[in-house]
Every structure is written in C-alpha cells, then in structure tokens.
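Narrative of activities, Objective 1.

The group set out to show that a structural description can be obtained from nothing but a protein's sequence at a throughput compatible with the screening campaign. Below is one input-output pair from the validation batch, recorded exactly as produced.
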Amino acid sequence: MATKQTDAKRGKRTQQAHDYLLGLGHLTVKFAEVHRAPRYPDGHRENDAEHSFHLSLSAVELAADFYPELDVGLVAQFSTVHDLPEVYAGDVRTFKITDEQRQQKKLAEAAAMKRLVKELPPYTVQLLKRYEKQVEPEARFVRFVDKLLPAIINISSGDANSFRSDYNMMSLEELNQMRAMHLQQLEAMFPDFPAVHLLCQLLWKTAADSEFDQK
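Output recorded for this entry:
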C-alpha cells in the first residue's frame, strides 16, 4: 500500500515537473524574442536571453573578486530571473528616459509580475519576488552590474554600436555629459558598491574612446 502511495506521489511530482519545464520552455522562447537597445557586431539587437547570460557571467565573476561576502549562487540566480517581467512588459530603454516613461515602465512591469506569479513554478516565483524587492545585497548588486553591460556590448560591437544610431551622440563632449549624469545617478542609487562605481567609470571611458577613437 505504501509503495503504491509513493509511486502515485512520485508520478504526480513528475507530471508537475513536466508541466513546469514545458512552461519554462515556452517562456524562454518568448524571452529570447524581447530585444534590447544594444547591437551585436552583426547588427542584430541583443535579446533578453543573451543579456541575462552575459549578466550572470559578469555578476558572478565580480562578486567573487570584489565582494566575496555575497552569495555567488544567489547572484547567478537573480541574474537569470531579473528581466523576466519583460516577457510581457517589453524592454524600455532607460538611457535618456523621461520621468513619464519611467512611470509607464513601472506600471507595465507591475502588471507583468501579476501574470508571471500565476504562470511560473514556485521556486522561480519566490526568486523573482525577492529580486524585485531589492532588499538583499545580492539583488542590489545584480541590478547595479546590469547597468554596466550596455557599454560593454557597445564596445564589443564596433561600428554596430548604438550610441550614434539610437541616441544621436555625435561628439565626445556630448557623450561625456551624458556619462557624468549617468554616473551621478548610479552613485545615489548604489552607494554600497564602491568598487563597481570605479569599474563603471573605466568602462564608460573605454566606450567613449572606442566610439570616438580617442588615443
């Protein structure tokens, strides 16, 4: 009798795992169809799946190197789920974003979260909720490192970068003005990760030098 109950329980859990995996598979396909602003060297827009993989690699490496007190496993998990609401809300470019656009983005992502909570399996739901609360240092760290990646993709993309085509940045002076404002905002948002601020400054300089051939 006990064996039959165990087999039935195992079968139910297996069916549940089957359904979860199918759902996550469908979600992953949708996720890879969400395109962001940065371009790859071949000119295609980076998608959210590519971006999340890049973030996971980068955030884990930085955490292990500069902030060993952080749980790198949790950093990797938060990196994986951090943009899932964009499956329904889409990606909104935050470079030069207005207050009105930021509010619209917030509302769209809140609506997307309501849908995802009903669709995602339980572990992924709690992980995404924890990330969105931005209470744990690992969650805040991931959100900060996320801000560094567009510059890196622009550096890697060469002539396909989006500074000129998307933002009409036609001079080094113009780019430096935007960089100063962006860095000031990040310093106010993430005062607890000074090493990442220094890295952000260096990456912006490299991006500017790459775009405008400053030697």
